[in-house]
Amino acid sequence: MERNAMRVLVGIDGSAAADVAVGLVSRIEWPPETEVVVVEAFEPSSGLLSAPWAELALIEAEGLEDQIKAEAERNLANVQRQLERPGLTVRTEVLCGRPSTAIVERARTLPADVIVLGSRGHGTIGSMLLGSVSAEVVDHAPAPVLVARGTKFGRVLLAWDGSACAAQAADLLGSWPIFAGRSVNVVSVDDLGNAWWTGFPEPGAAETSSMYRLSSDAARSTHDRLAHQKADELRTGGLDAEAEHRDGDAATQLIAAATAHRSDVILMGTHGRTGLARLVIGSVARNVLHHAPCSVLVVREQKAANTHKTGQSG
């Protein structure tokens, strides 16, 4: 495998979750000449300027922003010391703006091969396992996003269904040197559920039950074949790969498989979504991100607009 240098963007915010992300980055065997850019973003205190005492508010806002920026620079300097090692270039930047928007834009201009974030930042919905900043970055990032929930990067679970977005995720196993020598568990989930037509002519009628059983058997056979074919392909490429087929809700079964195999990272693709009434990424990826027991590397399906290739940009 050709060992191409990578560009890694790491977003921090001084939280414990960000510390986990930094710990994961420090443990990954990045190829020589990899560039790691660590950023912390803050929003300017522009809201104060709408007050009647705008002149005084401006002085207060500037003072507050100076304090926030100084704290961010201290955090970044500490992280830089943790990550610096031979063969790895580490730079730091303070970004101004909404954290999720600033991180996505910096990833685009870098351009980053991967974005690494903690699983929980300074989001406003305390009950969510995935912080609001991380969720927004995953939704809009121009590159794969690694959401860290641990500092190990050994055992990989590949979520596989044969789709184009899953294929883009699987391609990283061969093109990213950080996956060299990793153990991969290929999991394909038959999420057939209850077919709409089982209610006609009567729920549970012999003829519809028979049709549903045949359809279920065919789906199971298909997913079992998909998993084994992909595992064979990965073994041919030099990886230690095993195949597994599961039945049930896709997100639930992927999480269960990751738990059973003590996976360090779930690698999965997801379709990009649009529209106000739906999630930007698919519900399976969203549920895995919220509840996975390990880190999750999400590869959102990229169209022709994203032409950056690892190692080809200098």
What does this protein look like?
The chain is an alpha/beta fold and 314 residues long. The chain has a single domain (7-300), classed as Rossmann fold. The chain contains eight helices and ten strands. The chain has helices spanning 16-27, 54-83, 99-109, 132-140, 164-175, 206-236, 250-260, 283-291; strands spanning 7-11, 34-42, 88-96, 114-118, 145-148, 155-159, 183-190, 240-247, 265-270, 295-300. Helix 3 runs parallel beside helix 4 (132-140) and helix 7 packs parallel to helix 8. The model is unreliable at 121-129, 194-201, 274-280 and 304-314 (pLDDT under 50).
Write out key terms for the chains shown.
314 residues; ten-stranded mixed beta sheet; Rossmann fold; single chain; alpha/beta; 10 strands
Query: What is the approximate shape?
Result: globular
Question: What is the tally of helical segments?
Answer: 8
Q: Return the domain count.
A: 1
Q: Biggest β-sheet, characterized?
A: 10 strands, mixed
What is the second-level CATH architecture?
3-Layer(aba) Sandwich
Low-confidence stretches: 121-129, 194-201, 274-280, 304-314
Radius of gyration computed on alpha carbons = 22 Å
CATH topology: Rossmann fold
Beta-strand fraction estimate: 15-25%
User: What structural class is derived from the secondary structure elements?
Assistant: alpha/beta
Would you report the number of β strands? 10
Specify the CATH class: Alpha Beta
Tell me the helix content.
25-40%
Q: Sketch the topology as an H/E string, one letter per element.
A: EHEHEHEHEEHEHEHEHE
> How confident is the prediction overall: mean pLDDT?
82
- Taking the alpha carbons of the first and last residues, their distance comes to 18 Å
Q: How is the largest sheet built, in terms of strand order? A: 3-2-1-4-5-10-9-6-7-8
